[in-house]
Here is the input.
Amino acid sequence: MIRVFVVDDQPIFCDLVELTLSNSPKFLVVGRAHSAVSLDDHIQATRPDLILMDIEMPGVNGLAATARITMQHPSIQVGVTSIQAGEEVRSLALQAGALDFIPKHQFSEARLKQALPQCPE
Here is the structure.
């Protein structure tokens, strides 16, 4: 089971992720935060395998947080999400160290599995 932590300043997207993954035997949402400011504390408390990170948030930008997490916690994968879409946004996410970029309007369990090469069938 892949332990997922959601970082997004929009509670409705956090709710969508939890609802989407709630019946999946492959994923467990272990927590959420509405900013990346105190993310290290959340990581220590929940020990996620995957963080779904929004790009635009108050305080710390999601791309900067992604770069920091991938350097400080190499065992944690980061999937970046955003309401923005396009190759430029995807490229910035990958440059920051994200495993993949998933536009919010495309978020689904199937799309998340597609982003994770080690995801068990």
